[in-house]
Amino acid sequence: MCLPPAGAAFVDRHVAHVAHKVSYLQLKRLVEEARTRFDPAEAEKRARAAADWRHVSIHTQDVGVNGTVDLTGTLDLRDALDLDDALNRGAAEVGVAGCEESHDVRRSIAAGDLARGTQSLPFDETGEASTTGTPPRSRVVLHVHLAEATLDGDVEGCLGRVENTRSPIWVDRVRDWCAASDVQVIVKPVIDLAEHVHVEAYEIPDRLRVQREHIDHHCVFPWCTRPARSCDIDHVVAYEQGGSTCSDNTAPLCRGHHRAKTHSGWTYDTIDHGAYVWRSPNRLYFRVDGTGTTPVTTPSAPPGET
Asked: What Gene3D superfamilies does its record include (predicted)?
């Protein structure tokens, strides 16, 4: 992975303290970001080459006796995400229509329906059948983080980040997506991550949910990487045990680990903003924070325990 010295130093600053935890994929994303920031000419050259390699190939020369063929391709990210959503939506509609095949099989059926223009009657956001036959418009949700240099007017090499894939991307590319005539752009209010949100109710308000998603990014169970947007927002201290619905007592847990915490003896405490300590049923301790999961070999006893 070739980088200019400034780019290599950028990677080193971000990786040195977590070198024993960072995955190859995370490192690859960071190197690509460094290349874009510190060697924009090379990054643009690679981007053009990648665009020229876009294709969709249907391997009809290799048909199985069961009448199936393989399909491979390389797409623009926006096109790929829209296609993925369309196949998931089509699979759901085929299921509602009575098909009992697996989700993957129903996605393949939905691809054929898209090709023939014979999709099931689309459903609107309420789940009711739509009579217009108009497919939903693409949605681009932008979470924009501006560096100090950008605020000072230095926008060279300015990057966005695609939350679905956690990958950096040229801001100009994002601008092209948003400018398309079939895209609906929704502007949401800025969430203050330092604000203390508190409500006198059990239900998690949207404002608190979004705040926790941006602070923790993923399920806070040890070593879990499921994105926070697909997680439940858990009360660290259960609501029925006096725990409040607020920024200091909530965290994202995927459904499986939420159940583990509720039913199988796992417990955890918040020890800092975005940092937690977990205790297993066998009294093993783990710290989970922005750098990942760290086993704690000599834990201090939680408050109230000896």
From this structure: 1.10.30.50
Q: Is 111 exposed, middle or buried (0-12, 13-18, 19+ CB in 10 A)?
A: middle
Q: What was the pLDDT predicted at 131?
A: 46
Nearest to 35 by CA among 47, 48, 23: 47
Q: What is the pLDDT of residue 304?
A: 57
Are 218 and 228 spatial neighbours (Cβ–Cβ below 8 Å)?
Answer: yes
pLDDT tens figures, 26-46:
888 889 889 888 888 888 888
Q: pTM for the full model?
A: 0.59
Instruction: Identify whether 68 is part of a domain.
Output: no
Domain boundary among the residues 88, 106, 127 is at 127
> Tell me, what's the pLDDT at 128?
54
Q: For residue 272, what is the domain's CATH number?
A: 1.10.30
> Which of 8, 18, 10, 14 lies closest to 293 in space, CA to CA?
18
Closest by Cα among 220, 228, 296, 303 to 261: 220
Does a structural domain hold residue 273? yes
* Pair (95, 146) in one structural domain: no
CA distance linking residue 181 with residue 158, whole number of Å: 24
* Per-residue pLDDT, 123: 52
